[in-house]
Specification:
It is a multi-pass membrane protein. Keywords: Ion transport, Membrane, Transmembrane, Transmembrane helix, Transport, Zinc, Zinc transport. It comes from Sphingobium phenoxybenzoativorans. GO terms for molecular function: zinc ion transmembrane transporter activity. The protein is an all-alpha fold. It has a single domain (2-213), classed as Alpha-lytic protease prodomain-like (Up-down Bundle). The chain contains nine helices and no strands. Mean pLDDT is 75; it is low at 7-16 and 209-214.
């Protein structure tokens, strides 16, 4: 999930001073925000929990890119506060997707496999394009590498959604969609919680006087 591998993707000042790097991050931010909006709407209309879970992934990525562009050069306290908001949002959204998957499991709603495949393919195209744009930075510093790795892993998640759509089409059952949704929502909850916990710890450490810490 984006929040596991991109937790450190706030970027250093040196990284963010690269105009090409900043331009790519802006493009990635816009694409990920747009895909979040598209997938959450189509996921609800098509009754696809895996699309809703993938929308969570796009939300996490968009938040990471926004933090990289907006607050990376600020003091740790401000970065921690922003990350806390991001982590809390992803955590709440992940719980919502998990609840939606549980509801689908109980009521047996069958998603639209055509919508799953179409939107999943578009999401794959977006993530693959971002990964290609970031490819030249794959051997850069840790922050550059982490953002590229996240985009690459997101493309793999999209393949899961497409595979779930094909399985639904073949079997006529919504179970494959629910299985993928459970996996992705669980990863989202885990990633969001890690961010919240780390942010709280950083804020706590920031407020402890040097004499006490030392």
């Amino acid at each position: 999930m984006a929040d596991d591998c991109c937790a450190s993707a706030c970027g250093s000042k040196t990284t963010l001073n690269d105009p090409r790097w900043r331009k790519i991050l802006w493009i990635a931010l816009v694409l990920n925000a747009a895909m979040f909006a598209l997938e959450i709407v189509v996921g609800l209309l098509a009754h696809s929990r895996s699309l809703q879970a993938d929308a969570l992934d796009f939300l996490g990525d968009a938040a990471n890119y926004a933090i990289s562009l907006g607050v990376a050069g600020l003091a740790l306290q401000w970065r921690a506060r922003t990350a806390l908001i991001k982590g809390g949002t992803i955590l709440i959204f992940g719980i919502g997707v998990l609840g939606s998957a549980l509801w689908g499991l109980v009521h047996g709603a069958t998603p639209d496999p055509i919508a799953m495949g179409a939107v999943g393919s578009l999401a794959l195209l977006v993530n693959a394009s971002v990964a290609l744009m970031l490819y030249r930075y794959r051997t850069g510093d840790a922050n550059m590498r982490s953002v590229w790795i996240c985009s690459r892993n997101d493309a793999i998640n999209n393949l899961l959604v497409i595979g779930a759509g094909l399985a639904v089409l073949w079997s006529g059952s919504g179970l494959p969609d629910l299985i993928v949704a459970f996996i992705m929502a669980t990863l989202g909850i885990s990633g969001g919680w890690q961010i919240v916990r780390q942010s709280l710890q950083e804020l706590k450490d920031r407020n402890v006087p040097e004499a006490v810490r030392g």
